């Protein structure tokens, strides 16, 4: 890991009409447009969806580092983020980011430890820590070779999970409410890859390892 501060740069360019091209050094360009909510064409990335994607991406990368540091084996993590954009006094901004995750761990895995590490990843996510809006986390832990459909929203088929909410007005304050239920093994559904993920040490810097 390189010492702080880190510096990141990106650029955008466009003509009077058409899509916006965003780029960064040594990265492929991405085309964006306004979302349908702002009368955009749809079917392409927008600043709004890129922001939500950054939250989801950062959460998963942070969890990799947290799990590696804790020597915790897991199979898959799916993350869905919904941002709420509102007009508040004197500004239009995102007021809430609801993150929903589903973590699949191997048979015999420690579900309690998994919930602890998910909460730790939420607190260590540098993108979440940079946002003004309220950020909430709803998580489920599926034990065994449970159904794993990357296209499905991870808030479906909950077994055991946590729900955390942290408001930007009270940094670091966390409320946790556990909901208990039967563990599901995904009988009759698509099975996940049986081997736990091997996390790269490149993610360790996100948790200060």
Summarize the structure.
By secondary structure, this protein is of the alpha+beta class.
Task: Enumerate the strands of the largest sheet in spatial order, edge to edge or round the barrel.
Answer: 4-5-6-7-8
Roughly how many Å is the radius of gyration?
19 Å
Task: Give a quick account of the main beta sheet: strands, pairing sense, barrel closure.
Answer: 5 strands, mixed
One letter per element, helices H and strands E, the order comes to EEEHEEHEEE
Shape: globular
Q: Can you describe what's shown?
A:
Helix 1 (47-69) packs across helix 2 (111-124). The relative contact order is 0.16. The protein has helices spanning 47-69, 111-124; strands at 11-13, 20-23, 30-32, 76-88, 91-105, 134-143, 160-166, 175-179. With 209 residues, it is an alpha+beta fold. Helix 2 links the parallel strand 5 and strand 6 (134-143). Strands 4-5-6-7-8 form a five-stranded mixed beta sheet, with helices on one face.
């Amino acid at each position: 890991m390189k010492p702080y501060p880190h510096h990141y740069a990106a650029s955008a360019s466009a003509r009077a009409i058409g899509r916006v091209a965003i780029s960064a050094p040594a990265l492929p360009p991405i085309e964006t447009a306004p979302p349908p909510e702002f009368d955009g064409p749809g079917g392409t990335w927008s600043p709004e969806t890129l922001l939500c994607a950054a939250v989801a991406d950062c959460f998963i990368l942070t969890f990799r580092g947290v799990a590696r540091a804790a020597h915790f084996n897991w199979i898959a993590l799916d993350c869905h983020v919904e941002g709420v954009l509102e007009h508040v006094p004197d500004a239009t901004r995102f007021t809430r980011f609801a993150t929903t995750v589903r973590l699949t761990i191997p048979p015999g895995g420690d579900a309690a430890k998994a919930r602890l590490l998910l909460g730790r990843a939420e607190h260590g996510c540098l993108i979440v820590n940079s946002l003004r809006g309220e950020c909430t986390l709803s998580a489920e832990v599926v034990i065994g070779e449970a159904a794993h459909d990357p296209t499905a929203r991870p808030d479906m088929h909950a077994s055991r999970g946590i729900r955390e909410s942290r408001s930007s007005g009270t940094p670091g304050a966390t409320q946790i409410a556990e909901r208990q239920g039967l563990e599901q093994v995904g009988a009759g559904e698509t099975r996940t890859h049986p081997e736990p993920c091997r996390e790269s040490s490149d993610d360790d810097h996100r948790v200060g390892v």
